[in-house]
Amino acid sequence: MILIPDIDALPKVMGDDGEFHATDEAVDLSGTPAEAWAALLFFWALGLTVFYQFFTRYVMNDSAAWTEEIARYLLIATVFVGAAIGVAKNNHIQVDFFTASCRPGWGGPWPCSPMCCVSSSWSLRSY
């Protein structure tokens, strides 16, 4: 049985004057790492570059030639910095089969080195 909360028991958001009265917690960005700020900077630069490309192509009917390549490099930089953040937080994408099948003691400091070699060789063969 699914319990549905009583709506009248929830905190009131709309006041008697018909206006919303919601309060949010204060935002604390002091724990944000430098990599996150770099990713945000790359992302905004990418957005501005694509907007400039759109503006020059469709409004001015004369596309800027450099914007497509710069946008590509900014996207790559955003993805690389985001991947580094994911690895640092251990939130990156991983295949559970390989991580679960790696036993400690395989290959010294890299416990998955034989499994990685096998998977790499198979992917190169299929290419």
Task: Walk me through what this model shows.
The protein is built from four helices and no strands. It has 127 residues and is mainly alpha-helical. The chain has a domain of 59 residues. The longest helix has 26 residues. The radius of gyration is 25 Å and the shape is flat. The N and C termini lie far apart (52 Å). The mean pLDDT is 81.
List keywords for this structure.
mainly alpha, flat, 127 residues, 4 helices, single chain
Order of helices and strands: HHHH
In total, how many beta strands? 0
Distance between the termini: 52 Å
User: What percent of residues are in strands?
Assistant: under 5%
What is the average of the pLDDT values? 81
Question: Nutshell version of this structure?
Answer:
With 127 residues, the chain is mainly alpha-helical. It is 54% helix and 0% strand.
Question: What layout of secondary structure does this protein have?
Answer:
Layout: H1 34-59, H2 67-89, H3 96-101, H4 113-126
